[in-house]
Amino acid sequence: MNKQIKPTLILLFIFLMTLEKMQAQAPTAADRMDFIHAEIVRIDRLDGKEDGKIETRDSVKNIIAHRAYFEWPDSIDTYIRVADFKEVDRKIYRDYLFQCLRRVDNTTYKRVSYYDELFHHLYKEVIALHDNRLPGVLKQNIKLSIQTCGVFRYERVAESFLCYASHWEPDEIFKYVDDYAERPYAQHVIDHTAIYAPEVAKKYMLINNPVLNIMRTSKDTSIKVILKITDDIGKKSNAYFLLDAIINGKMTIKEADSIGLDPKKFFLALNEIRKQKYPLAAYSLEKEIQVQALKIVRLINDLHNEKATVRFACIDDFTPEQLYTLIIYSEEDIFTSTFDGIFKRLMSRLGTNNGFTMILLTGDNHFRTFIKQCAGYGKLDQFLTTMSPEQRNILMIKGAANLEKDENDISQAVEVADAYTSIKDANIKRILQSTFSIELQRVSRDSAKKGQIIYGLLLNLFVNTGLFGQDWYGSVSSIYKLPPLNILPNAKLFETNHKCIWQIYFYDDDDGAVSFKDFVKTFEDSLWLIEDHKLYVKIISLNRKFVDIYANKPKAEYEGQAYLENYFDSLDIVPDVLVHRGHSYYAYKTIEKTKPETKIFVLGSCGGYHNLSNIIDKSPEVSIISSKQIGVHMVNNPILRALADNIASGKDINWQQLWDKIDRRLKGSIPEIYDKWLDYIPPHKNLGAIFIRSYNRLIEEQ
After folding, report:
1. Which residue of 189, 274, 483, 603 has the fewest C-beta atoms within 10 A of its own C-beta?
2. How many CA atoms lie within 13 Å of 303's alpha carbon, on the beta-carbon side?
3. Which long-range contacts (CB under 8 A, 24 or more apart) does 403-406 make?
4. Looking at the DSSP assignment, which residues form a beta bridge with residue 505?
5. Spatial distance between the Cα atoms of 41 and 38, rounded to a whole number of angstroms
6. Residue 541 φ/ψ, nearest 5 degrees
7. What are the residue ranges in the chain where pLDDT is below 50?
8. Which of 113, 132, 151 is the last residue of a domain?
9. How far apart are the first and last CA of the chain?
């Protein structure tokens, strides 16, 4: 009996041990975490070592990399695990974290700042999902929210947010369609975005592209017209921009295509559609009007040596509203003489109308930009005299009111800030100050946080402190926790590379060769060594602190810029100073190169809101030198030389002292050049940049 029981007990023991082992091997929530851990380990190995860090040969980037690839993913995973999510949601969030980690590979892992922002944003989204406050977090960074939409694609807010986000980032909506393509709302989101930005949508109208597949199933009339333009005429047609006129029966697709081939008729047609408050294809329409307006203005600019009858002949038959459109869409490029000539013709053609009525006829389109430009060119008083005192007050109050209404855009507030500094009329200033105060009371009653920040800033910058007074820099820096506005410590420029590295972007445009030649001559003396290479020049400081300046040759625009960027990447170098030398329509290319480590950005062309905002988004504490108008090399080069000498001397940059030094040098130059110099804005007086940085800092604290 005992002999029979013993084998049975042994078999039972083996069975229980096997069962325990099988249970231990069954997938659990803890096991799924191993997939996350495996991805983190994979990323860890991308630099050749598995050691819990990413080596970039830059101490600052190493810290950012550790936070991006180890700390944020671990924090996200831990939060998902311990928070009281439903198990099905927990799996969705963890699986999406895995997908985001999969984006990091051999070609992308050095983009540490981008992934730091991405995973930080994903962390905030996961917490917001738990706390039921997702909409507010999504609007903090629209682009990153679209790029991480997979984590909230099952939420009720997804559809409304993606439609809202399409007004700012339509390209991202199409680019990340795979993350939400299977959801029932995908049709509405793609339809909405394509109608808003058909010129962007056409890039995705490719065989087997999910965007095209979704559009093909649409029942919307506007989508069918967009597809018909593509199928019948082709993607090169300008008929996409005239979608509103086609849908409303004002022209056929063929007529729209024909009008799009005639530059003048095309501009006039765009202008007519834009008078509406909410036209179809609004995003594409806005972009194209600017392109067409700039073409006309640049033609007038190029004829600056001709008689006025020749120079302005192309706008002889333009209405005041059309001339207004030229002005507001050409802010970045318009010469003073061009502005004066267009403004003069606008005023003479108002006829029985006045300026107030004219702005109403344009649908109030960018009227704050127009006010700012008039103030900047000393024409605001003249323009305001065309209207009654009551209309004048209404216009100024309307310009300063409701600045918080564009939820994710503070450009209008920046326009008002810039305009205020150029206004000389004490009565108008009082009206604006009073409006700021009344509006602050309104947004405070409504608990509108964004409005409170905007109007609190306007009052603090322009009313509560004397603008640019003796203690202005210190008080503004203290209130908004900004670095000193008027001083840039020399050590900051050497902390990343142990040298101060410059990269100057020249472009192969009409004056690129002249600008480049004059730039090189600026450094031809015993304090600098100039090395001439095939695609670029390198200028090295001698007998002082190390400053290395790299500038591609204009004729080698593409090869030279790419060579220098690859060279810097190979050495893990991030330029401390970026300089844009070329027309403003190339500025976005240079701005894209801005990194968090960029300390100074010299923007020779107009420092409009979008340029300033894009630079500050990439490098929050960057010092920006910009111009109200197009830059000229006879001003740019003295600025660059004075700046380079200051840095090489080892002294901190005192922007006011540097500006005074350059002013003394240029004061005795050609009057036209000195006038151009007066349009340049140093970092400590760049109200647009200061407003944006202060706003961003206060928003972060919410």
Report:
1. 483
2. 17
3. 403/439, 403/451, 403/454, 403/455, 404/443, 404/448, 404/450, 404/451, 404/454, 404/455
4. 580
5. 5
6. -75, 145
7. 1-5, 7, 10-12, 14-15, 18-33
8. 132
9. 79
